[in-house]
Design goal:
Helix 1 crosses helix 7 and helix 4 packs parallel to helix 5. The protein has 15 helices and 20 strands. With 453 residues, it is α/β, with parallel strands linked by helices. A hairpin with a 6-residue loop joins strand 1 and strand 2. 39% of the residues lie in helices and 20% in strands. The structure holds NADPH dihydro-nicotinamide-adenine-dinucleotide phosphate (NDP).
């Protein structure tokens, strides 16, 4: 028997909606439906599949305000972020709508015949989505998976299922056939775990914590199931003395406190060259105190609440005696934590090493380029990071030396839907977005044709 549970608005602690969570049997039934739909979806002509994805993209764009409103209520995202996230789904679908007509193989010279490779769909793909960016992470998975001819079963996080449910309805309204994109709300330990164990699911794309990701990878190994993982991060923001320190301090809060720090790319470790450390901290205090943590419906909001009481408690457990200064946050109902800056003793500190996933940043000095690189790489993670310098050669050297999948020089941007995104080390396996993602959702088949018989 399936149960219903309450979905909560994290800014008010009020119930937004009740949602039914799927059982293992119901999950299996949806997987079977996706497998049946795969037989015809993979043979939809490139022209028609492209047009269907474009229609889906247009449908999402028409509903951007509605989707954003749902996300503000369900996830506490600021209005600006929520609109960007809805647009991101539309943009990703539009980008991958160009794929069916361009999914090229190769012709490789061989003796005695012709050798051709084909990029073929894998089958039913299971996409497991976390609560921090419910819309974009779902879209990055289903955009590439559907374009390459797979069908999808998608499990949103229990805390934030509402936009995914609506996106599933919009897909049908746009003409995507029944069974091609299936949203299955429910528990990770039930629905998500079944994606791993049910052999009809041929690939799992997981985004979430490194701990759960390791378990999924181990589970997939049983069936040599394809798996991609987008996991945690502890990204460094490296600021050299040759850069405008006031400008670096002004941009640093946005690089870490956006989405209340619940971002795998958050620049949670700031490294500042020693001779400009005090100057940086002076300006940083001003910019942190000006960063507005408030009702996410307000256009002025820089960040909203955390997603849950549990997440608030976890984050608060890292706020120890090393606090340098804090911003402000609303009191009363809601899971609020103010922007917080720590000055840990050294790189061994728990707050420096562990992913906190909240509005908490640590700052340490470094002496020179080599020290900055060593400190930045002293982490099990390698997802993102920023380098602020006016020296072009240094920017290039440090960008090549930092062990991370996504770096930005003199900015904090991480994600563009047409460039690859993913992690080094324990931040993940494989890449989302850009052309690279197509390899994550296809098998390469090689066929030799004998021309001499
Ligand atoms: P989880 O890794 O537990 O959840 C991510 C997704 O995986 C959710 O949809 C969850 O479902 C599902 N899931 C959980 N357990 C299993 C399982 N055994 N098999 C299959 N799927 C499963 O993250 P949490 O929500 O617990 O967050 C905890 C911490 O993880 C955060 O504090 C943060 O540090 C990190 N995190 C990192 C993210 C990132 O993008 N790097 C994203 C989210 C969290 P359900 O939630 O419904 O149980």
């Amino acid at each position: 028997m399936s149960n219903t549970y309450d979905v909560i608005n994290p800014a008010t602690e009020q119930v937004v909606k009740q949602v039914r969570e799927a059982t293992v049997e119901e999950t299996d039934a949806v997987i079977a439906k996706a497998a049946a739909a795969f037989k015809s979806w993979r043979n939809v002509t490139p022209y028609d599949r492209s047009n269907l994805l474009r229609a889906f993209s247009n449908k999402v764009r028409e509903h951007r305000e509605e989707l954003a409103k749902i996300e503000i209520e369900n996830s506490g995202h600021t209005r600006g972020n929520a609109l960007w996230e809805a647009d991101n789904v539309a943009n990703v679908l539009n980008y991958y709508a160009g794929v069916p007509e361009r999914l090229y193989g190769r012709q490789i010279p061989v003796a005695g015949g012709v050798d051709i490779t084909f990029k073929e769909p894998i089958g039913v793909v299971g996409i497991i989505v976390p609560w921090n960016f419910p819309m974009p992470i779902a879209g990055w998975g289903f955009g590439a998976a559907l374009a390459t001819g797979n069908t999808v079963v998608l499990k949103p996080a229990e805390l934030t299922p509402l936009t995914a449910i609506r996106l599933g309805e919009l897909a049908l309204e746009a003409g995507i056939p029944e069974g091609v994109l299936n949203v299955v709300p429910g528990k990770g330990s039930v629905v998500g775990a079944r994606f791993v164990t049910n052999p009809t699911v041929r690939k799992v794309s997981f985004t979430g914590s490194t701990t759960v990701g390791k378990g999924i990878m181990a589970g997939c190994a049983e069936q040599v199931k394809r798996v991609t993982l987008e996991l945690g991060g502890k990204s460094a923001n490296i600021i050299f003395d040759d850069f405008d320190i006031e400008a670096a301090a002004a941009s640093a809060p946005g690089g870490v406190f956006d989405n209340a720090g619940q971002d795998c790319c958050a620049r949670t470790r700031i490294l500042v060259q020693k001779n400009v450390f005090d100057k940086f901290m002076e300006h940083f205090e001003k910019s942190v105190k000006a960063f507005r943590c408030e009702d996410p419906n307000l256009d002025t909001a820089g960040m909203g609440p955390l997603i849950s009481k549990k997440q608030k408690e976890t984050v608060e457990s890292y706020i120890d005696g090393s606090v340098a200064f804090q911003g402000t946050a609303p009191s009363g109902p809601g899971y609020w934590v103010p922007p917080t800056v720590l000055l840990p003793k050294d790189t061994k500190a728990k707050s420096w090493q562990e992913e906190i996933f909240g509005p908490v940043v640590s700052v340490l000095p470094f002496t020179d380029e080599a020290d900055a690189i060593e400190k930045a790489n002293d982490s099990i993670y390698g997802l993102s990071g920023s380098i602020f310098t006016s020296n072009l050669g240094r920017a290039m050297r440090v960008a090549r030396a930092v062990e991370s999948g996504n770096l930005s020089v003199n900015s904090h941007s991480s994600v563009r839907y047409w460039t690859p995104f993913g992690g080094y080390k324990q931040s993940g396996l494989g890449r989302a977005l850009g052309p690279e993602s197509l390899d994550m959702y296809t098998e390469t088949k090689n066929v030799f044709f004998n021309t001499e018989s």
